[in-house]
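Open question from group meeting: does this chain pack into something compact, or does most of it stay loose? Before anyone orders reagents, we agreed to write out a predicted structure and look at it together. Recording both the input and the output here so the notebook holds the full record.
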Amino acid sequence: MPLPEKRWFRIADVARRWEIPSSDVEDYALDEMLQLSVFVVDLPAEAGICERDDHGHHHILEDMPILNGPQPLCRASLLSIFRDGLAEVGSFCTGRPGGYLRVATHVPPVLVRRDDLIVTREERDRFERAHGGADANQTPTHAWHSDDFARVRVDNEWHSFGPKQAAVLRLLKTAAETDSPWRDGKRLLDEAGATTMRLIDLFKRKPAWRRLVLADGKGRYRLNAEFLSPERRRIRLFRKSGPGGASRRDVGIDRRGGMNLQ
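Structure tokens returned:
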């Protein structure tokens, strides 16, 4: 029977697909051409910005997410794993200038072995499109969120969201697939079981939400059309909504970068 495509692969799987030795895949990773990851479950972490001042580096804590799923590994960790067969990993790559993502201070480092290394489907497909590997002409993947919206990709960077935040995003995604994509903010909070009075308070520690969610300045919100499928985006851009919905002018503002954001 047809099975769903895997979301990540072992190095050996990718090597077979590309018809190269596994050592070549490792070399691509060390040369920072290919991102390798490790799968974690319910791992407490700390995320923020590292700034340099006259006294050295200063870490500004912004969030304390619980990590689940593939986490990208830094080059130094990979070098230790390839050299020794395993390494204690205390931090992960973020792709964010000056940003850091590390295991929480009260949690021991993650022990990562060579056999634990994986390549996400998104990263595999990106590499193939960039370098003309197998299936380079296939339609690229458009996966941008986990099934429960606990992780969402914004500007090629994955962001974690709490249960109530994720619930709001799920509601907005469902609404975006209808002819009435706008939803009342207070109703969204109520349906998500949130105790805050404003959506901006619920997401105050998640700046990425401003790229995901658009506001009309009247207490209503919708998912940014950039994150819809091409087909649904085309419908949203050229069809007027029903009573109380967005006009063509509203949608045009959304496309130019979300000028309606609070």
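Observations to bring back to the group:
Confidence is low (pLDDT under 50) at residues 134-142, 230-262.
The CA atoms of residues 21 and 252 lie 50 Å apart.
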